[in-house]
Amino acid sequence: MPLHFATISMPERVSLKFASCSRMASNAARRAEWRRQRRGNFQALGVAVGEFRVFLKEYGVVGLALGVIIGGKAGELVTAIVEGLLMPVIGLFLPGGEWQEWVVGEFKVGIVLAALINFIVVAYFVFFVSKRLLRESSVVKK
To answer: Global pTM?
Structure first.
């Protein structure tokens, strides 16, 4: 049954008021302590983020990650170009596409030849793009 303020006598009202004030004060103190702890956590997080940024810049991790990502996608692109454009041209000179299945004794020469062509095209593509993108003025020599 809820208490109605009008049914409480004056001394009881005063004691309830002070009890609620002390509860409010303890809640406020708890909230203030919680805020101080949170602020410390955020400051520690800020220090960690700052150190992480320095690490990324100092060791060139971002450039490495971008290189790996772009290199992987460039490899897929070059593989598609080799399989979609270059191999059909080779197939014109060696009809039937059976050259990839050439075998000398136990050695599968055709597979190695196809991988070699793919590697040469990927290496040239990476060399060409890196030479265009990383000009002499943008590369810092140590």
So the answer is: 0.40
For the record, the structure tokens of 6 come out as 């009008």
For 141, the 3-state DSSP assignment is: coil
What averages of pLDDT result for each successive group of 10 residues across the chain (142 residues)?
55 53 69 72 72 79 75 77 77 74 76 78 78 60 56
DSSP track, 67-129: HHHHHHHHHHHHHHHIIIIIHHHHHHHSTTSGGGG--BTTB-HHHHHHHHHHHHHHHHHHHHH
Write down how long the chain is: 142
Angle between helices 61-81 and 109-133 (to 10 degrees): 130
Indicate the residue type of 4. H
Residue with tokens 């020599």: 141
DSSP 4: P
Do residues 122 and 74 make contact, with C-beta atoms less than 8 angstroms apart? yes
